[in-house]
Amino acid sequence: MTVAKTSVLVLDCAEPESLALFYADLLGAQVRAGEEPDTVEVVGGAGVHLAVRRDHGYAPPSWPRPEDSQQAHLRIVVAPADLDEAEREAVSLGARPLSPDAGEGPRDARLFSDPAGHSFTLAAGRRPQ
Questions:
Q1: Chunked in runs of 10, what are the mean pLDDT values of the chain (129 residues)?
Q2: What are phi and psi of 11, to 5 degrees?
Q3: Quick one: angle between helices 16-27 and 83-93, nearest 10?
Q4: How far is CA 44 from CA 27, 37, 70, 101, 105, in A?
Q5: What is the pTM of this model?
Q6: Angstrom distance (rounded) from CA 77 to CA 96
Q7: What is the number of other CB atoms lying within 10 angstroms of the CB of residue 79?
Q8: How far apart are CA 114 and CA 93, in angstroms?
């Protein structure tokens, strides 16, 4: 018998409340207090469950430097027709484009950093229903 499980991606940062609000706005989700101290959760939408935890010694990732390679990133899937609008929305909320070819024609995936420096991708694809 398999034990029921769920997963939560946890991002470390200096200001979890503001980063949680960024992702809640970007994903159309809600913010709630986490189960652990200094943790804020982002929940709702189609399977969204993300946690943001305060790390008093936090230093942002320095991707793409090879010595500090990317450990993980969030992939946000949107309908292909919505990719440009999703990019505009992310940038208006404080995301920073990381793609060297940003703005140079159609791309199926676009790399950004969130306000705390974590990388995430907006990707065209089929969203789960």
A1: 68 92 93 88 81 81 58 79 91 88 65 90 72
A2: -110, 130
A3: 160
A4: 8, 21, 26, 32, 32
A5: 0.73
A6: 18
A7: 12
A8: 9
